[in-house]
Amino acid sequence: MTFKLASLGLAAALLTSTAALAEGEPPAEVAPIKADGYQAGIDGTFAPHAFPSLDGGIQGFNVDLAAAMAEKLGVDIEIVPGQYTGLFPALHSGTFDYIAAPTTVTEERSKTMLFTEGFMATNFGFATLTGSDIDSVEDLQGKTVTANKGSLYETWLTERAEEMDLTVLTFGTQADAFEAVTSGRADASMAGMTVTAWAGQQNPRLEFAFQIDTGLSWSLPFRRDDYATRNLFDSVLECLKTDGTMAALSEKWFGLTPEEGELIVTPDAGYGTPGFEGYQPDEHEVTCTFE
């Protein structure tokens, strides 16, 4: 099998349609593997999940995840980069079989798409200077903390600024927010957990200090009526969690070794994300054999 990279044309990115909604929950069936493989959309500008490589392709955690899935299934998965907002219309129109980009599962999104079980928690992360004694929210009291302007992280910080005596500095890019820490203008920077962990991997002056559990997860979206294919990929995710693949990818891209019980290495029961529409609680055994 091969893992292929393609480019998404503008017309495909702008395709729109209405997602088919299932009438109730169908039986929990698992689709047979498509002999001609699958096509998946991804945002190729979100390091460390998918971002340009020196050879002109894309690399990252989610790119490697798609490659591992292709290997388990024994068929091609063609990854098609495009703008994040254009991926969803292309999914609904049938251009893609699924979206390989990390997508947070929300109640609103679960009404129009099916999600696999989460492959990783979408937690908040904090980066500090290497050797800093900041390792909890309490340690931020009276500190200067940076964030990307207009982000959810800026909102979280400003809402707590008065209570925690925080000085909040915002920047147009996350890179500039991190640079403020390394230059001594700030004590910490807040972003997504994977982004802060990646920054610590790339810059020896930064370290991933701690994270805050949001209770949310990243998952892989499928069309709202495509339960059987979603269930197939959900099963592959379960395999990759239990055979060590996901732990190896976490160590490679984030420098973090998952502990037992963490979502990235622990399968959920049933198919899909528990607590959201489209979840099927049917019991089944984890397998790494697919036909």
Give an overview of the whole structure.
Residues 1-22 form the signal peptide. The chain is α/β, with parallel strands linked by helices and 291 residues long. The chain has 2 domains: 3-19 and 28-121 and 216-265, D-Maltodextrin-Binding Protein, domain 2, CATH 3.40.190.10; 124-212, D-Maltodextrin-Binding Protein, domain 2. It is 31% helix and 21% strand. It is built from 9 helices and 16 strands. It has helices at residues 10-13, 61-73, 84-93, 107-110, 152-164, 174-182, 193-202, 227-242, 245-254; strands at residues 3-5, 38-42, 51-52, 58-59, 77-81, 98-99, 103-104, 113-115, 120-121, 124-129, 144-148, 167-171, 188-192, 206-212, 217-219, 221-223. Helix 2 packs across helix 8 and helix 2 packs antiparallel against helix 9. The relative contact order is 0.19. Mean pLDDT is 91; it is low at 1-5 and 7-23.
Order of helices and strands: EHEEEHEHEEHEEEEHEHEHEEEHH
Spans of at least 5 consecutive residues whose pLDDT stays below 50 are 1-5, 7-23
Q: Look at the helices and sheets and give the structural class.
A: alpha/beta
Mean pLDDT: 91
Q: Give the overall shape.
A: elongated
Tally of discrete structural domains: 2
Strand order of the largest sheet: 12-11-13-10-14
Which bin fits the share of residues in helices?
Answer: 25-40%
Strand content: 15-25%
Q: How many extended strands? A: 16
CATH-scheme architecture of the largest domain:
3-Layer(aba) Sandwich
Report the major sheet. 5 strands, mixed
CATH superfamily of the largest domain: Periplasmic binding protein-like II
